Predict the 3D structure of the following.
Amino acid sequence: MKINKPLRAITGLVSLASAFYLPSKLFASNPADLTADNRQFPVPAAKVIYDSGNNKGALFNVPFGKKNDRSAYAFGWLGGDGTKILQGNVSIDKGPLDLGLQATKVWIDGADIPVDYTMSLDLSNDNGGLAGIFNFKNPEKSKAGLRLNTGKLTSYLTSSLKELEPVLGISYTAGDIPVHVSYNPSTKTYQVRTQKAFKSKFGEMWIPEVRLKNQDGKIEVGFGLMSILK
């Protein structure tokens, strides 16, 4: 499916050319971390993103349930080319299993595209995990991923099931600053992300991030700012 060219900068999102009409990795540890944007997020949070291609987005997440083991988010996106995206997600965390359901609505050049529905599933422990995203309307666009943890280093391998186009990723934490790198061989695209958390005197956590993308020798930049509320 070709909806759009890959975004001109990375802002916590990978691409409008993803398999589910959605720019993924809203909470991403790594762009190659398949279900990072769909997992249960146990604290209230808000995030804004912007990149040099004049792409903008905003996200609001609310936990619920007796143990805050469920969460719901709403995400809005306005692309520099006029593309609009509205997405909602509800997810639940039950021990090693994290299950999410997503509905995504897209408008491109004024066209009213039907709502897309996906389900994410992540089964993990301290050593890593297996993940998948199933597209109800287009099963051939479903994806699977593998995550391995070895101390401060985490490795990722993700691919669509039909095309077998792998995306590789590595995350490493130096002190309290994580660095995440991914590579997509099919598009020859490198992506790098880092962030730093700051606690304010008002009991909130502010997390600015910077993302760089190198595609065919062209380097671009994106910025994000998340606030975790108490």
